[in-house]
Design brief:
The complex is a heterodimer of chains A (76) and B (125).
Chain A (H helix, E strand, L loop, with lengths): L5 H6 L4 H56 L5
Chain B lengths: L3 H22 L3 H15 L2 H11 L19 H33 L4 H9 L4
Helix pairs in contact in B: 1-2, 1-3
The chains are: A mainly alpha (76), B mainly alpha (125).
């Protein structure tokens, strides 16, 4: 299977539009299926890390408050 | 003139849309996942229908060219790229599935100790 020149590869005996648009749609779908999971993983990791930081900050704050109460004699 | 395989594939498409819509419709993640699993189990019935639709109804679709028991009637220039493409798409699907599975596990188990250890350790050097 060979073609006379590059333009006949594009033209494909009149079927070029169908063939190349079918290839393009296929490539787009494969690319989407590669990129979307990678982006989802980044989002999940960022969300989990942010939750960890917020929890650590809340723990820090509550520790400081209970330490203050202890020093002010509010805790028996 | 309708075609049996195209019609059963259309039903499969509607099932996919249904699963996607169901997952978005329920607020709780676990309930949504359970409902989607039940809908998927019901939809699995469609798969053998698609597979045998060419045999059972004699509509438009041509019969099977790749058979398990006989030599395929396809030219080797077409046959080998086709077999390689089939294998490639199966492998690609498996890789993407496993990757999405790992991300999903990470998301659902993010409050556990082992996940927090991994996340605070940072990326591998």
């Amino acid at each position: 299977m060979y073609f006379e020149n590059f333009s006949s590869l594009l033209h494909m005996d009149g079927h070029g539009l169908y063939v190349w648009s079918a290839y393009a749609v296929g490539l787009l779908l494969i690319a989407y299926n590669v990129i979307a999971p990678l982006m989802a993983r980044t989002r999940v990791v960022e969300h989990a890390k942010r939750q960890m930081r917020q929890k650590a900050a809340r723990y820090q704050t509550s520790y400081k408050i209970s330490h203050q109460h202890l020093q002010q004699g509010k805790v028996q | 003139m309708w075609d049996a395989r195209l019609t059963s594939m259309l039903i499969l498409l509607f099932l996919y849309f249904g699963v996607i819509a169901l997952r978005g419709a329920v607020q709780s993640v676990n309930t949504a996942a359970r409902a989607c699993a039940i809908l998927t189990l019901v939809g699995v019935v469609n798969i053998p229908i698609i597979r045998f639709s060419v045999e059972w109804w004699n509509t438009l679709h041509q019969g099977a060219t790749l058979k398990l028991t006989e030599k395929p009637s396809m030219a080797p220039e077409m046959l080998y790229p086709l077999l390689i493409s089939i294998a490639a798409f199966y492998l690609f699907f498996t890789v993407v599935l496993l990757f999405r599975l790992r991300t999903e596990i990470l998301d659902r188990e993010r409050r556990t100790q082992w996940v927090q250890t991994i996340l605070s350790a940072g990326p591998k050097k």
